[in-house]
Q: What sequence folds into this?
């Protein structure tokens, strides 16, 4: 017996479309369609992190603004998150509100700063947060929606909208969403969160204020010193915020570059030192470009400026696919002290 196919409910689809248009017209989205929240979906999202309506997730002290659980849940629903993503979204909010991160600065600056979320530990694998092929790109629901949820919270809870508190001159596509996991499986070194005091069995999230996404490529060498020179050049360009501010940097290594360093017996500390040693510009170059407003002096050609104060200010993360000698340098926002990346536990 042939069973008739169920016809789609076009009335429901039209109603959803009208709701989506309403949210866009009210300025409550990032410009993309959202998932209209319902009380049931909000409560399911809260349950995903064992939270209730009115619970405090974090206090944004610089804005004197509490970020409540129901507000986080509503924006997570709108972003397309599943309830099991909610603990990661809440951890990102807590990292944003951490005084060490100074979240008000990077989200209101005129530069093109995006908030990079790096997830480590068992939860990354359980949720399927992409860490390998195309980890920064499209195709993965948790990556796309967790990062997007944080952006919607910035807009709808903290009023960081373009032209309001978000004063970015040109913006950055990564401001829609920038979330990925570290590829711990293929890394020969300790992952980022264990460097920062957590165990491998714990789940943690690192929030990093990233201005530039600079891809480096060197297909002709496996020599770690030459690889370090390529990466170092990528983060020491004349227009870099880091070259004067000396904040933090994040370097993301794909599998082939990881193998080059590992085969040569380099530790993570040696990688940071190698990149630091090769990431410099002469004072003469900086003066010639107008980055230093002083007249030239003898010896400027052999005096150097580094984009970080010390090798330890370079975060090294392993991610990406198995093919290609690619590395990505994420330059940081701000000066050395006002903004620092923050790693927090993912609870629940």
A:
């Amino acid at each position: 017996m042939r069973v008739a196919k169920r016809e789609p409910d076009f009335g429901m689809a039209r109603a959803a479309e009208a709701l989506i248009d309403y949210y866009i017209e009210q300025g409550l989205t990032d410009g993309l369609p959202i998932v209209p929240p319902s009380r049931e979906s909000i409560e399911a999202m809260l349950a995903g992190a064992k939270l209730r309506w009115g619970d405090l997730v974090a206090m944004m002290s610089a804005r004197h603004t509490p970020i409540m659980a129901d507000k986080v849940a509503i924006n997570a629903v709108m972003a397309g998150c599943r309830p099991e993503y909610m603990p990661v979204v809440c951890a990102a909010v807590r990292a944003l509100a951490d005084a060490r991160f100074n979240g008000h600065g990077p989200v209101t600056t005129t530069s093109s700063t995006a908030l990079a979320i790096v997830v480590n530990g068992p939860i990354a694998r359980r949720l399927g947060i992409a860490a390998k092929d195309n980890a920064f790109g499209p195709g993965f629901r948790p990556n796309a929606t967790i990062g997007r949820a944080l952006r919607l919270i910035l807009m709808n809870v903290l009023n960081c909208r373009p032209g309001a508190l978000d004063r970015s001159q040109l913006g950055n596509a990564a401001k829609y969403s920038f979330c990925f996991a570290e590829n711990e499986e293929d890394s020969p070194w300790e992952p980022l969160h264990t460097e920062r005091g957590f165990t491998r069995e714990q789940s943690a999230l690192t929030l990093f204020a990233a201005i530039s996404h600079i891809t480096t490529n060197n297909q002709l060498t496996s020599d770690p010193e030459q690889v370090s020179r390529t990466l170092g050049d990528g983060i020491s360009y004349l227009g870099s915020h880091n070259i004067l501010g000396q904040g933090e940097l994040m370097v993301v290594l794909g599998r082939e570059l990881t193998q080059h360093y590992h085969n040569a017996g380099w530790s993570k500390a040696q990688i940071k030192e190698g990149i630091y040693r090769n990431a410099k510009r002469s004072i003469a170059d900086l003066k010639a470009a107008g980055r230093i407003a002083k007249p030239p002096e003898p010896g400027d050609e052999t005096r150097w400026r580094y984009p970080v104060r010390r090798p330890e200010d370079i975060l090294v993360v392993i991610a990406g696919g198995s093919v290609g000698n690619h590395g990505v340098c994420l330059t940081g926002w701000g000066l050395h002290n006002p903004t620092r990346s923050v790693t927090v536990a993912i609870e629940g």
User: Anything to note?
Assistant: The chain has a mean pLDDT of 93.
